[in-house]
Design goal:
single chain; alpha/beta; six-stranded mixed beta sheet; two-stranded antiparallel sheet; 20% strand
Length: 235
Amino acid sequence: MEPQDIQHAIENFWLRRDGQESKLDDGGKSGGAARGNGHMKPLEDLVKSIFIDCGIPEECIKTGQPYLPGYYRVRKQWDLVVKYKGVLVAAFEFKSQVGSVGKNFNNRFEEALGSATDIDAAQRKNDQSPFGQLPPWLGYVFILQETPETEKEGKDTRAMFPTDAAFHGLSYNQRYQEMIRRFIGERVYDAGWFITTKRADGDITYLEPLAAATASVLRAAIEGRVNVVKAMLKE
């Protein structure tokens, strides 16, 4: 996965999103193109290609929001699931935030935390540990549009009790980075990929500002997971 591959995927992300927005009855004013489907597929395809490069057959990689069992709810749709010889190799969430970050930041956090917590509980508490001998291995891919709103520092952190000083003064962009950094550090998710993108004067650019969640780190993490699974299967 070279930088030009990522650039192409980001350009396709915008192209698909714009196409979806134009097809919505309200022009995307209520929830935007996030209510459409398929704009994250270019990123899904890149992640899928890593598993294929690692020797996982393509038919073992399911997209289109396949279901996995939960504990607090009966099942949950994931965006990409890899099942190889009866083993859950990986489950991925793909999310984006384009505009209205102040209204949706908490929703994105709660979705991500809830999904990971539910599948972890399913492995520990459901009968016969549904995912086999290895615990679930989770990935989180996130695209954030850079705007003046996402880059403005000093967002309010006041609460009825003292809040974590690490969040003081951070922008929404930096809060997302801290969220994903903590997810990975606390093994809520095992790997992540955080991308920021912006459009200016017709140009589309992207950055990977979080060192722990770049494409190269994600590839290394996936390779390690596949190696563990294959070793367990004595391949």
